[in-house]
Amino acid sequence: MQLVKKIFCWIAGLFFVGFVVLMGLAAWLKTKLPTTPKVALIKVEGVINSSDDILKKLKKVEEDKSIKALVLRVNSPGGAVGASQEIYEELLKVKNEYKKPVVVSMGNVAASGGLYISLPANVIFAEGGTITGSIGVIIQKLDIQKLADKIGVKMEVVKTGKFKDILNPFREMTDEERKYLLELEKNVLNQFKEAVVKNRDKKLKVKIDEIADGRIFSGQQALQIGLIDKIGNLEDAINEAAKLAGIKGKPVVVELKKEQPLVKKLLGSDLKGFVPFDTSTTFGLYYLMTY
At what angle are helices 81-96 and 52-63 packed, to 10 degrees? Predict the structure, then answer.
């Protein structure tokens, strides 16, 4: 009986060692064998509240040597300034440091922050009816002072500086506070304008101050003033990216999707639907087209 156990243990051990060796050999061969060149597709949809998910996908584009080009599908009215700028900077890295062409395909809307993250692209596509532009900055403050007075609600604030509760919804904003916020917005707007001028360079056919007042444009209008490069759909953008990367024939497209959390895999949905508000939304400066 003891002999049978020993033989079984030896066989199991040999199987395990063999499995490890084969896995290592497969991984090594994978690095040596030629891989099919691919075009990565990343979709940016909805308000940009966070950059984390998009940045993870962009890192995959940078690290995967089989990915030769990137198509960014943008269908967004914009969002938080910081998140938009982080995505913008990483796209510049994909294009300039990793030498992978970036092509943007604008969907229904690619305005404000949606336009901002599109700027690093080698080529920007949009449909004739795409809504883009909206170069501007917005800070919104809710004023519920009269409502609070009517129902007898009062908020007391203890602060260390006069501007600390500048967005307090239980009181009116002072003229000094409005002036302060406007200067802040002008500074952030100038960063947007500089990004447009830097990336569109000689393509821009008008002076930046003529269009940096929050107005929106159709895709046709954007083409006329040089905010985009071509009229076309997602497939056109994919073919353009493959062409820029030197890929022959029909390109292999790999869409990088968000990894599903464990709770969603188990339940078929995440817990966000059970929360009565979007906890990812934060107050702050926004490159956002509002309705």
Answer: 0
Q: Which two tokens stand for residue 163?
A: 């501007």
Per-residue pLDDT of 75-113, as tens digits, reads 999 999 999 999 999 999 999 999 999 999 999 999 999
Q: Please state, in angstroms and rounded to a whole number, the distance separating the CA atoms of residues 31 and 42.
A: 25
CB 73 within 8 A of CB 46: no
Q: Which amino acid is at 7?
A: I
Only one residue has tokens 């080698």, namely: 122
Q: Which of 60, 164, 257, 264 is catalytic?
A: 164
In contact, 117 and 88? CB cutoff 8 Å:
yes
pLDDT score of 268 more than 80: no
Question: What span, in angstroms and rounded, lies between the C-alpha atoms of 68 and 71?
Answer: 10
Q: Give the Cα separation of 189 and 81 in Å (integer).
A: 10
112 is catalytic: yes
Contact between 170 and 223 under an 8 Å Cβ cutoff? The reply is no
pLDDT tens, 137-161? 999 888 898 998 899 998 888 989 9
Using a cut of 0.85, tell me whether the model's pTM lies above it. no
pLDDT of 210-237, one tens digit each?
A: 999 999 999 999 999 999 999 999 999 9
Cα–Cα distances in angstroms (integers) from residue 182 to residues 189, 222, 251, 270, in the given order: 10, 27, 47, 39
Q: Inform me whether the pLDDT recorded for 14 exceeds 90.
A: no
Q: What would be the CATH architecture of the domain defined by 35-288?
A: Alpha-Beta Complex (3.90)
Q: What does the domain layout of the chain look like in residue ranges?
A: 35-288
Report how far residue 96's alpha carbon sits from residue 107's, in angstroms, rounded to the nearest whole number. Answer: 25
Q: Which amino acid is at 144?
A: I
Catalytic residue among 84, 105, 112, 118: 112
